[in-house]
Sequence to fold (146 residues):
Amino acid sequence: MVNLSSLLKDCGISCNNPTCTEWNSGIQAIEDAINTAVQSQIPPIFPLTDGATINVDWSKSPTQRVIIAGNRTFAFTGAKSGQRCHLILVQNGVGGFTSPTWPASMRGSGGSITAPTGTANKTTHYVMVYDDIAGKYDVLSVTTNL
Fold:
């Protein structure tokens, strides 16, 4: 969150006089506008529908989540060059689904991609970046068992 009053004070600009009500109201209005604009730039997590094949269209949101009830096949589309893509994979209440079929366009370090946690109701996060020249989703990090 932006705190413009503190920033201005750090720069030696302030109004501590009780008659500075307009100044303080104006600063608060600017802070509110900046914070609203920043928050509006954070896209929501897009909910995916579970099924035998899960189609992830990255143009809908860079962060997408699905609760899986089995080993699934994933298909990726819609990413732009250099786009960060964040897939949140949640095990259902049963769990045990650790063998997804990833698209050929997804590549991990050394040619392997970490399997998701199999623990019921736990989450695995896959963070990738899309390389449009190679046509690949490069896995940057995998965090399991959250």
Residues 4-40 form one domain. The first helix runs from residue 4 to 10. The helical segments are 4-10, 21-40.
